[in-house]
Amino acid sequence: MNYLMPHSPKKDIYLNEFGLLSNLKFVLKDMCDVKNLKTSCGNPDFFKKCDFANDHAPFLKDLLNEGSVLKGITVCDEFFYSLIGENGHYGTPINLNAPSCVPGGSSSGSAAALTNDLYDFSIGSDTGGSVRIPASFCGLIGMRPTHNRINTEGVYPMAPSFDTVGWFANSVGIFQKVGEVLLDKMDKSNINFRQFVIAEDLLELCDAAVQENFNNYIKNNLPGIDKNRLSNISKDIIADNFRVLQGNEVKINIIPWIEKNKPKISPEIKSRIDMASKITDIEVSKALTFRENLIDEIKKSLPEGTIAVFPTAPFSAPKSGQDDESLGFYRKRLMQLTSIAGMTSRPQISIPKLKDKTGPVGISLLGWQYSDEILLNKLIEI
């Protein structure tokens, strides 16, 4: 089970026998407080210096109180700073739905674990695509909720303006139940669903084969759907501004610990840490203004009541073991599709519907803020 961390609990963890999730087995990304355990955030030196947790993170306690059973802690990308899923210290979790390919990151182990039949659901986190991309590569349902819909207390911060807890499942019914437990009990969106639209500008960023498969799927399942363009801005520019804002928060939340403790870091992650350390206040200020303008633009192009539909990733899972330059090319293209949800704090679900050269590709639903429950209900219509 190369998707489990060496410090996984030796015994099952549960709090209550009965509840909405009674007897459902799950695994958890190595990112948060688990009572009497330590976390590594994907780095062995962090694990050595980390304190034992005094209590479970609140979202985890909610799951356990509803009868679910924690079976293990899963491998993740080092300090959550990748979309690929290869960890230089703990290895690459095996993606059984795309053999010899990466599982996607940073919630790599949580996704790979569900490519067998041992667990009912798993928990990850999504800052820049870390649930959506593994869901796509591994052929799972996966969700990034509206920012702040799930309590992130007790979760190690990467970039708090974008960090969300997310989850995976193979079963729609189980996926919806987990969402009912995890999502806060705020008033539901009072906006009714009106229509699906194809995000044509995102579709155009995908490989030709993915575009063809997507168009055929839509023709057979959602005939007559309108097309729309979410933004006239280059998706490279959107992704670059996301990288600046995310990197600046990494600079605040992670780099001070690294500078103080000098852990051994794999080359891929070190290059990204070095990049984040050089981000300037002027770059951040410009990116914040850019984000505000993008939010306004997307509100007009994708108003409340409308759900955008598009491939989650531009390609299926890349082969594992490639060099950093190749991986950087893949990350750049992935961020073109994932950065909009993060920049606008909108919920997005990936649903396993397509096949490409090496394995699955998800179809995504992108809603409006606080439309999480509506997206969950619309799963069965795609």
Structural account:
The protein is of the alpha/beta class. The protein has two domains: 25-182, Amidase signature (AS) enzymes; 195-234 and 282-381, Alpha-Beta Complex (Amidase signature (AS) enzymes). The protein has helices spanning 44-49, 58-65, 108-112, 132-138, 172-182, 200-203, 208-221, 235-253, 255-261, 267-277, 281-301, 324-344, 372-378; strands at 25-29, 69-74, 121-126, 141-144, 164-169, 195-199, 226-228, 306-311, 348-355, 360-366. A ten-stranded mixed beta sheet has the order 2-1-3-5-4-9-10-8-6-7, sandwiched between helices. Strand 9 and strand 10 form a beta hairpin. The two termini are 32 Å apart. The model has no long low-confidence stretch (mean pLDDT 96).
Secondary structure category = alpha/beta
Any idea of the CATH topology of the largest domain?
Answer: Amidase signature (AS) enzymes
Indicate the mean pLDDT: 96
- Give the distance, in angstroms, between the N- and C-terminal Cα atoms: 32 Å
Q: Report the count of strand segments.
A: 10
Largest sheet descriptor: 10 strands, mixed
The radius of gyration is 19 Å
* Count of individual domains: 2
Q: Examine the secondary-structure arrangement and name the CATH architecture of the largest domain.
A: Alpha-Beta Complex
Helix content: 25-40%
N-to-C order of helices and strands: EHHEHEHEEHEHHEHHHHEHEEH
Low-confidence stretches: none
- Give, in spatial order, the strands making up the sheet with the most strands: 2-1-3-5-4-9-10-8-6-7
CATH class call of the largest domain: Alpha Beta
Assign the CATH superfamily of the largest domain. Amidase signature (AS) domain
Quickly count the helices. Answer: 13
